[in-house]
Amino acid sequence: MGLLDGKTVLVAGVTMDSSIGFAVAKVAQEEGARVLISNFGRALSITKRIAKRLPEEPPVLDLDVTNQEHLDGLADALRAEGVERLDGVVHSIAYGNPETLLGGKFLDGPWDDVSQAVQVSAYSLKSLAMATRPLLGSGSSIVGLTFDATIAWPAYDWMGVAKAALESTSRYLARDLGPDGIRCNLVSAGPLKTLAAKAIPGFEELDEGWGTRAPLGWDNTDQGPTAKAVCALISDFFPATTGEIVHVDGGYHSLGA
Ligand code: NAP
User: Fold this and answer.
1) Domains in the chain, number
2) Distance CA 222, CA 106 (A)
3) CB 249 within 8 A of CB 211
4) Are strands 60-62 and 88-91 parallel, antiparallel or unpaired?
5) How far is CA 92 from the centre of its chain?
6) Residue located nearest, by CA, to atom 7 of ligand 1
7) Does the CB atom of residue 39 touch ligand 1 within 6 A?
8) 200 annotated to bind ligand
9) What CATH number has the domain bearing residue 202?
10) pLDDT digits (tens, 9 = 90+) for 194-208
11) Does ligand 1 come within 6 angstroms of the Cβ of 197?
């Protein structure tokens, strides 16, 4: 018996096998789910290669969350794969221009780049929810990934602002989709050495000391605990939880300075 037996899950945002989305897809398959993954643009061919490393090779969809045509066609693209209902939708997507928005650029970050970061990293949670809405029903669960936006971090700068928008977007989705029995939650992960993290100038500053200070310790190369939490939130074991942020950070967030 797997936690996700009989469930179908879309994981959006898988590029490498270091991607949190990849770990989510792996755990979801191990727990019995049928999984589809997505990425966009030039990286799609990489994703197709990486998909073969999962226990079962999943269909790979082309989905740029800023492309309205992609969003409008997503439900049909899923139906073409034989999907009539989605039990889980995982938003594992973020982008902020590292040249202009991250690594100590907060006071100079230009609006065009900030608006792109907010669209890709926060507004897209709403876009993805609405694009998959025809396939969601009572018991379906949307889960996104955040990096605790309640405080200002070194180097994270405008991505922190985008994450604050994501966290708020999740709460409003929870409010508006809750009456239909659809949940929306986030997992707030500690720093993990993924492609996105490596692109942050000053990621080491964020990461520094996490492993020694976190009460449970923290392995920044292990996406497993984060993936398990995402799968738990998709499962039937959180039937009355929505608008929530579950920290998977070794307990770091619970400490004072
Ligand atoms: P990742 O492997 O780089 O995943 C980010 C994904 O977003 C990539 O697949 C990327 O595709 C995709 N993406 C970017 N723009 C997109 C668009 N317009 N449409 C569709 N997909 C797009 O890095 P990750 O660390 O696993 O990130 C996954 C999520 O976890 C993000 O929300 C991130 O902020 C969050 N998170 C990460 C950490 C950490 O320390 N790594 C901690 C907490 C939360 P391309 O590679 O093709 O650009």
Assistant:
1) 1
2) 29
3) no
4) unpaired
5) 2
6) 93
7) yes
8) no
9) 3.40.50.720
10) 998 988 988 898 888
11) yes
